[in-house]
């Protein structure tokens, strides 16, 4: 079943038509594959489990044979900045700037962002280089610290043009799969990104409903082959950490951030939320109380 170099992208199944999402599957060298399932965080049914939907996808008759008899090498999860052009924040601040996925430069329809990350980093370097001759003024340090020319460089590059061309495709799926596909075809093949309008996004956390208004989803039980238990990824993740390194902050379990469970308290679904209010601790209790760790550069 392995076909080195083959690429598969899907949209929809096993998700319902009111939920945005899809998969990618890449046949790599050494008889390995990279597979993933992406689900938009604006789904409405609070009983939906992204992990379980991924398990269902892997059991499709055309997908399961690819993994049968194989060994899992690594496992992980991450969030994708899929807002596109409409969600790009202020990109510069004194002493720094945003590049790549941090700034939201992902081309969502293509699920590609490495090329835009590289381009934004190149432009960032040019913008910072222009600051080197600027003299530092203690009374007005801003011009010497903030690469204010960086955003304009981006807008004059092919990166901005590429994101502008696909800006309306992801928002089109807010009305469901079929209208989203129609809009994507219209934008891609007829208008070619030159539509005289720009669609906006809705707030993801406001879309989820109450658990009593949606049916529970009957996910198949794990079989250890195509379906794995929800706790399995925690064992499979390859994390490397230096346990001897002093931690910068100490965050007790009870010290929850305010607003952390707003989505969960309303839905009572995605994360087994409780009705207890978060217990806030004074800031000084969260700071590292040990001695200041020696920095490697201090020994140079």
Report what the structure shows.
The chain is α+β, with helices and mostly antiparallel strands. It folds into three domains: 7-79 and 214-235, 2-Layer Sandwich (D-Amino Acid Oxidase, Chain A, domain 2), CATH 3.30.9.90; 84-167; 243-300, no CATH class. The protein is built from eleven helices and five strands; from the N terminus they run βββααββααααααααα. It has helices at 50-58, 64-67, 100-103, 114-129, 142-145, 150-155, 158-165, 177-191, 232-236, 262-267, 283-286; strands at 7-11, 21-27, 33-39, 92-93, 96-97. The chain has a three-stranded antiparallel beta sheet, with helices on one face. It has a two-stranded antiparallel sheet with strand order 4-5. A hairpin with a 5-residue loop joins strand 2 (21-27) and strand 3 (33-39). The relative contact order is 0.13. Residues 237-243, 259-265 and 271-300 have low confidence and may be disordered.
SSE order and pairing:
Layout (H helix, E strand, L loop, with lengths): L6 E5 L9 E7 L5 E7 L10 H9 L5 H4 L24 E2 L2 E2 L2 H4 L10 H16 L12 H4 L4 H6 L2 H8 L11 H15 L40 H5 L25 H6 L15 H4 L14
């Amino acid at each position: 079943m392995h076909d080195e170099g083959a690429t598969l992208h899907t949209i929809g199944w096993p998700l319902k038509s009111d939920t945005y999402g899809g998969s990618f599957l890449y046949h790599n060298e050494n008889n390995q594959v990279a597979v993933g399932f992406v689900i938009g965080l604006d789904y409405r049914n609070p009983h939906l489990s992204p992990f379980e939907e991924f398990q269902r996808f892997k059991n499709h008759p055309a997908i399961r044979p690819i993994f049968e008899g194989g060994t899992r090498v690594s496992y992980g999860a991450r969030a994708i900045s899929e807002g596109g052009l409409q969600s790009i924040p202020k990109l510069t601040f004194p002493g720094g700037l945003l590049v790549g996925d941090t700034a939201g430069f992902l081309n969502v329809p293509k699920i590609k962002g490495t090329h835009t990350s590289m381009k934004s980093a190149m432009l960032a370097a040019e913008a910072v280089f222009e600051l080197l001759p600027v003299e530092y003024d203690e009374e007005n340090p801003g011009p010497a610290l903030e690469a204010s020319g960086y955003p304009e460089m981006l807008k004059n590059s092919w990166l901005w043009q590429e994101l502008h061309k696909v800006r309306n495709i992801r928002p089109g799926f807010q009305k469901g799969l079929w209208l989203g596909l129609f809009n994507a075809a219209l934008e891609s093949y007829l208008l070619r990104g030159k539509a005289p309008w720009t669609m906006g996004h809705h707030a993801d956390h406001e879309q989820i409903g109450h658990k009593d208004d949606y049916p529970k989803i009957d996910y198949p039980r794990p079989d250890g082959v195509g379906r794995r238990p929800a706790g399995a990824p925690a064992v499979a993740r390859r994390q490397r950490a230096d346990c001897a390194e002093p931690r910068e902050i100490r965050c007790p379990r009870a010290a929850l951030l305010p607003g952390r469970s707003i989505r969960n308290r309303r839905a009572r679904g995605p994360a087994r939320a409780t009705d207890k209010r978060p217990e806030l601790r004074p800031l000084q209790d969260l700071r590292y109380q040990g001695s200041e760790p020696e920095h490697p550069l201090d020994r140079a």
